[in-house]
Amino acid sequence: MNGRMFSRRRFLALAALGALELPRLPVVQAAEPVLRSVPSTGERLPAIGMGTWITFDVDRGDTEVMTVRWQVLQEFFAAGGRLIDSSPMYGSAEAVLGELLPQSPGAGALFSATKVWTPGRWMGEQQMARSRELWGLPRFDLMQVHNLLDWEAHLPTLQRMKAEGWVGHIGITTSHGSRHGEFERILRRERLDFAQFTYNLAHREVEERLLPLAAERGCAVLINRPFDGGRLFGRVRGVALPGWAAEIGCTNWAQVFLKFVISHPAVTCAIPATSRPAHMRENMGALAGPLPDGALRRRMAADFERL
Asked: What PROSITE patterns does this protein's entry cite (predicted)?
């Protein structure tokens, strides 16, 4: 054994003994995904990524649960996904990723994103070093200050780490529509590669200031909570897809919600989270087919408000 709670050897042994029932997933042929460029570096990323809040905070000793998360990663990479976002705030999520990514076909294309979430420069440096250890990576593609916690202490550290090659990009985050005023002031003052905040059909206030400002400042945008924590699905429960959904290649509401988000020209990548392989497949389907234009976006918003 290699010391990990869910090692490849243990996984294969359980499967061979019949102790683990593995669903037989059909092979997915990844279509050419919708790609967006990071303005500061030119890095090209698929417009749908993956979040890990709650969904990957699981018991690493539970083989069946870990196997389902492994299948979620399989679906993600098979469909062309790259960006996975996590945080020390998310319980065991970083450790779970560190165990499953080496066993996931396609993980070589990973764009790794996590956060620093602790007060003080020294504590932040220790936490980021621990995150590298948990993920099993020599560097992160993106390091962000989580929910602006002690950002004035951490941003100089992130800037130094970027200059030294320990991280590829740096940024800040907020969620639940909070602290937009402070977020805007930081975006205007600092030169950042990424900004992450909440945007979905129910919460569109960032269209007024933060999204235009990010574009003006040459800052890539990650969107968290594109399903409003699952509440959007409650709004459409029992409601048939509108006729225009087929025009943009949507076969389910998840794809409608995601295509609305990623069709905004300032959005680089949406990062929905899921614990179900089938839902991951639905999410990644939003990378295929046309995106709504401005007129359809306005109609989507109006139709949603009437629900």
From this structure: TAT (PS51318)
